[in-house]
C-alpha cells in the first residue's frame, strides 16, 4: 500500500471491489430465485418428513443437502433462511449453510481441476470435503445445544420459523388448499426473490468494500513466504487470508493452487474456512442470526478448522509425506 500512489490505490480498490461484487452477484440472484421457488411450492412440513428424529443423523443429512440444492456461499444464505422458515431444524440449516458451498458437484469438480496438474487433486478433494463435513456437523451440533437453551432468541425476526399448522395436511377438517394461477405463482416468486435479493445485496456490498480495502494491505506473496519460514503459522495466516479475500467457493481452489510452495494443510485451511466464514458472510449473517449465534458459529468454525488442519499437518509430518507439490 505504501508503494502505491493515491490514484493507483483507488484504482486497485475499485478493481478488487467490483471483482468480488460481480463474482458473487450471479449466485445471489440464483439463490434468491431458488428461495422464491421454495417459498411458493414447498409445503411447510414436507422437508421435515424425511429427516430422522435423532439430531446427529439429521445434521449429517443437512450437511449433504448441497448435493440436492447446490449453491455457493454467496447465495446459500437466502435458501437456508427459506428452508428454516419452512420448518427445517436450525441445526440442519446450519449444517447445510456451512457444508453446502463445499459439498456440491460443481465445487468438487473445480477443486479437482485446480489441483490435477499438481498431482494432489485426490488429496485436496478428499481433505476439503471430509474436513468441511466434520466442521459443519460439529458446529451444527453446538448450535443445537444453544438452540435448546435459547430457542428462537438466536434468530432475527425475519428468520423465525413460521408457526406450524394446527391441523395435519390430511385431516378431514383441514381447509382445502387455494388453487393459484400460474401468473399468481410467478408474481409471488418474483416478490419473494426481489425481497431476498435486496436484503442480502446490501450486506454483500458492504462486505466487498471491507474486503477490497483489506486486500490493499496484505499480499499473497507474503503469506507464501511465511509458509516456507514458519509452517505452523501458515495455517492461521491462510485462514485469515481466506476471511479477507471473500472468494467464491467455485473459484477459490484455483487461488489456493497458485500458492505452489504452500503445505497442503494450509491450503485445506484456506479452502474450508473461506466458504464458511469471511467478511461478507459475517455481515450477511446479521440478517438472519443474532450476535450470540454468529459468535458461536464463528468460534466453532475457526477453532475446528485450525485444529483439524494442524492434525493434517502432523499426520503428513509423521509419515514423511511431502505435503507440497513437487
Describe this structure in words.
The protein is mostly helical and 326 residues long. It has one domain. It has helices spanning 6-41, 46-49, 55-63, 73-85, 90-99, 105-116, 121-150, 182-215, 220-229, 231-245, 252-257, 264-273, 279-285, 291-318. The chain starts with 5 loop residues before the first helix and ends in an 8-residue tail after the last helix.
The biggest sheet amounts to: none
What is the element string, with H for helices and E for strands?
HHHHHHHHHHHHHH
User: What is the total domain count?
Assistant: 1
So how many helices? Answer: 14
Characterize the overall form. globular
Strand portion, in percent?
A: under 5%
Helix content class? 55-70%
Number of strands: 0
Average pLDDT figure: 82
The low-confidence parts are: 164-174
What would you call the structural class?
Answer: mainly alpha
Supply Rg: 21 Å
Distance between the termini: 33 Å
Helix and strand topology:
Elements: H1 6-41, H2 46-49, H3 55-63, H4 73-85, H5 90-99, H6 105-116, H7 121-150, H8 182-215, H9 220-229, H10 231-245, H11 252-257, H12 264-273, H13 279-285, H14 291-318
Write a concise synopsis of the structure shown.
This protein is 69% helix and 0% strand. With 326 residues, it is an all-alpha fold. 44% of the residues are buried.
Observed structural traits:
globular; 326 residues; 69% helix; single chain; mainly alpha
